[in-house]
Specification:
Rossmann fold, globular, 28% helix, binds S-adenosyl-L-homocysteine, 6 helices, two-stranded antiparallel ribbon, alpha/beta, seven-stranded mixed beta sheet
């Protein structure tokens, strides 16, 4: 049975209030954060901290993003139920679950096989059946499944991943942290076949987006 108690739900209500206080305004995003049992995405030694607004190690040298970062990135995506979205960097699967909770048909790529395998067990176990997981290099995207309504990159890219831009529908957006040590949260909208518009939303710090697969 899934271990999600009233106490966990109470802690999530407090987290949602905290995120509201930090300026997260999208009720759809807050509802999803309230619904996803984040404590099940962390190693058991961190469970007590699961509903604090902080990032944690998840194995393979990677981190689960802090809830306010997940909320802000999800809000910037401007997605609606039923839309087809690509995530780069499945990691713990938490961000994927938040999008799944919002009724998104999600395709998520991870390059670390250890994390990919964990998510292949965890996400179906929690009932997220519209999340499709892939082991691969996110720089390549998923050309056979494109175009996407939105693309979310959850690792820091030194430059805007050019191949991914071409996998966006016209009108769709890609949200990506761009830079090396410190990144700028960037949103790029595809205006038509050739033109893109870029907006910036302040500094952030993600683990780096790397090339190739790590078996
Ligand atoms: N969305 C995740 C955040 C994980 S951190 C969560 O909710 O937990 C970023 C992840 O991106 C790491 O797991 C890292 O292995 C992965 N990553 C880095 N470069 C990648 C690439 N080129 N393709 C796919 N995944 C990548």
């Amino acid at each position: 049975m899934i271990n999600d108690t009233f106490r966990h739900k109470g802690l999530r209500s407090r987290l949602v209030d905290e995120l509201r206080g930090k300026g997260v305004g999208s009720e759809a995003v807050l509802r999803a954060i309230h619904a996803v049992p984040r404590h099940l995405f962390l190693d058991s030694s961190f469970v007590k901290m699961a509903y604090k607004d902080i990032a944690f190690p998840i194995g393979a040298g990677q981190t689960i993003s802090q809830p306010s970062t997940v909320a802000r990135q999800t809000q910037l995506l401007e997605v609606l139920p039923g839309q087809k979205v690509l995530e780069v960097g499945t990691g713990s699967g938490y961000q994927a679950a938040v999008l799944g909770e919002m009724g998104i048909e999600l395709y998520s790529i991870e390059r670390q096989s250890e994390l990919y395998k964990k998510c292949c067990q965890m996400l179906p176990y929690l009932g997220y059946s519209k999340i499709h997981l892939f082991l691969g290099d996110g720089y390549e995207g998923l050309p056979d499944i494109a175009p996407f309504d939105a693309i979310l990159v959850t690792a820091g890219a030194e430059e805007i991943p050019a191949k991914l831009l071409l996998q966006l529908k016209v009108g769709g957006v890609m949200v990506v942290p761009v830079g090396s040590k410190i990144q700028i949260m960037t949103r790029i909208r595809r205006l038509n076949e050739e033109e893109f518009e870029q907006e910036e939303f302040g500094e952030c710090a993600f683990v780096p987006m790397l090339n190739g697969i790590n078996q």
